Amino acid sequence: MRLALSTLGTPGASLADSVALARSFGLDGLELRLHPDTGVHSGLDAGGRAAVLRTLGGLPAFCLSGYVRICEPGDDEPVIEALRADLRLARDLGAGHVRVFPGGEDLDAGARRLAAVADEGPRVLVETHDALPTGAAVAALLARAPRAGAIWDLLHPWRHGEDPAETLRHLGDRLVCVQIKDAASATDTTPVPLGTGGVPLAAARKLLDGFDGWVSLEWERTWYPGIPPVEHVLPGALDWIAGRGSG
Question: How far apart are CA 48 and CA 148, in angstroms?
């Protein structure tokens, strides 16, 4: 497993600061949140993209986490064009993956939109989120989108009643990335240090023994500014990767 840090956990920090933090903990890469606040987004011009690459300094940006909602109702073209913009940025930054959210539950629309970009480079990863929060729900979409993959956010399937073994069974070989986090409970999703909340991290770690994809620490400090800085929980993520406790 390769461990990355999501820049959702470093609000207010520069990309250079996030790169330095990842390197100081010996991480394998970054999951870059696409938003003007982070300085990385599809509106960057050629100079801005080159500056991001220089700042990364060879540290992989394995996934660009965008906010396109692939199964939202409405016209296809605006969704497809927004996704294409994220894919172009990913190509320019050498990122192999782009994250999308389901948004709604229109599987027909999601399948059409994913098909429209299937041959356009980086792989699109659908996260267990929104109206498709479980492995079963995301797998139903992926069955109609042969090239797309999955991100398993450990929080959402569990809080919707899906056992980790079932999530993994449904996602199978489409699983590319696991986002690790812990929360106070299934109803109180305030982030807490790994192993101190209710998310079944230990069970997931046992199931993932042998998984050779990416693991990303998604410490949601952007949404919960009162929680400690991410460096306080990074040691727990390293312990989880190594199979030492955490839940």
Answer: 28
d(CA 214, CA 242): 14
Instruction: Give the strand pairing for 29-33 and 61-69.
Output: parallel
Buried b (16+ CB within 10 A) or exposed e, 86-119: bbbbbebbebbbbbbbbbbbbbebbbbbbebbee
Backbone angles phi, psi at 110, to 5 degrees: -60, -45
Residue 178: strand, helix, or coil: strand
Which residues, listed in sequence order, are joined to residue 29 by a DSSP beta bridge? 4
C-alpha to C-alpha distance for 217 and 64, rounded to whole angstroms = 14
3-state DSSP call for residue 6? strand
Its pTM stands at 0.97
Contact 167, 134 (CB under 8 A): yes
Q: How far apart are CA 94 and CA 87, in angstroms?
A: 10
Q: Would you write out the chain's pLDDT as a tens digit for each of its 247 residues?
A: 999 999 999 999 999 999 999 999 999 999 999 999 999 999 999 999 999 999 999 999 999 999 999 999 999 999 999 999 999 999 999 999 999 999 999 999 999 999 999 999 999 999 999 999 999 999 999 999 999 999 999 999 999 999 999 999 999 999 999 999 999 999 999 999 999 999 999 999 999 999 999 999 999 999 999 999 999 999 999 999 999 865 5
